[in-house]
TrEMBL record:
Domain Nudix hydrolase intervals: 58-189
Highest classification ranks of the organism: Bacteria, Pseudomonadati, Pseudomonadota, Betaproteobacteria, Burkholderiales
A matching Pfam family: NUDIX
PROSITE patterns reported in the protein's UniProt record: NUDIX
CDD domains assigned: NUDIX_CoAse_Nudt7
Sections of the chain in a coiled coil: none
Cofactor list: Mg(2+); Mn(2+)
Protein name per its UniProtKB record: CoA pyrophosphatase
C-alpha cells in the first residue's frame, strides 16, 4: 500500500478522550509509578498503525520514556527530531533508535540511544520496566522502556539527530481529554492516529507549541491505559 504524504496538524479531529476516566493522581508520582510497574494487572493496548500497512519483518528498536522527577511534578522528556533524518524527520519522539549487535537488551539500547541523542547519563535513570512493543507503519517494532530520571542531570542535543529537547508534564499527557483521534482519508483508505498537541511554556517562559502524534502519541496512550488498569 502506498503511504500518503500529509500534514497531521491539518487533519480533522474525529474524537477526544474527554469522557474517559482519569488516572489517579498518586499513580503519577514516583512511588505510584514504581508500585504500578511492580504489579501485573490485565489491560488492553490500543490497536496499532502497522496493521494498516501490513508491515512484515519489522526492525527491532527501543526508546526511552524518560520521566524527570522535578520539584513541580513528573515530566516527560521529549525530542523534536532533526528535519534531515530519513525516518520520522521533524517529528516529536522519545530518545531511541534501532537495536545494534552490541546491545544485549532493548533496555541497554534505549539507555545507549538516550545518552547518544541527548547526553542523558544512564546512571541517572531508574528503569521501571517496559510497555508492550509498538509496531509502526514505517517498519519498526519498538520497545518503550520507562525510567525515572533522577536529578541532578544535564542534557545536550546531538545536532545531527535532535533539533530540540523539551518537557511536558506527565499529568497533561495522561489526561485523556488531551488525547485526540485524527483521521486521514484518501483514495487508498483511512488512517486514524492519536495526537496530543501541547503548547506549554519553555524554560524561558515562551509558549512553545509541539504536535505530538503517531507512534509517540500511541505509546503515550498505551502508557495511559497501563496506568489506568
Amino acid at each position: 500500500m502506498i503511504r500518503p504524504v500529509f500534514e497531521p496538524e491539518s487533519l480533522p479531529i474525529e474524537s477526544t478522550g474527554a469522557r474517559l476516566p482519569l488516572v489517579a493522581a498518586e499513580r503519577l508520582t514516583p512511588p505510584g509509578l514504581r508500585a504500578r510497574f511492580e504489579q501485573s494487572l490485565p489491560w488492553d493496548p490500543e490497536p496499532q498503525e502497522a496493521a494498516l500497512y501490513d508491515v512484515r519483518d519489522p526492525r527491532r528498536a527501543a526508546v526511552l520514556v524518560p520521566l524527570a522527577m522535578r520539584a513541580s511534578g513528573v515530566t516527560v522528556l521529549l525530542t523534536q527530531r532533526a528535519d534531515h533524518l530519513s525516518n520520522h524527520a521533524g517529528q516529536v519522539s522519545f530518545p531511541g533508535g534501532s537495536l545494534e549487535p552490541a546491545d544485549p537488551t532493548p533496555i541497554a539500547a534505549a539507555l545507549r540511544e538516550a545518552h547518544e541523542e541527548v547526553n542523558l547519563d544512564p546512571a541517572r535513570v531508574e528503569v521501571l520496566g517496559a510497555l508492550p512493543d509498538y509496531l509502526t507503519g514505517t517498519g519498526f517494532r519498538v520497545t518503550p522502556v520507562v525510567g525515572l530520571v533522577h536529578e541532578p542531570f544535564s542534557l545536550a542535543a546531538d545536532a545531527l539527530e535532535v533539533a530540540e529537547i523539551f518537557e511536558v508534564p506527565l499529568s497533561f499527557l495522561m489526561d485523556p481529554a488531551h488525547h485526540q483521534v485524527r483521521v486521514l482519508r484518501w483514495a487508498g483508505g483511512e488512517r486514524r492516529f492519536f495526537a496530543m498537541p501541547y503548547s506549554g511554556a519553555d524554560a524561558s517562559g515562551i509558549r512553545a507549541p509541539h504536535f505530538i502524534w503517531g507512534a509517540t502519541a500511541g505509546m503515550l496512550r498505551n502508557f495511559y491505559r497501563f496506568l489506568l488498569a
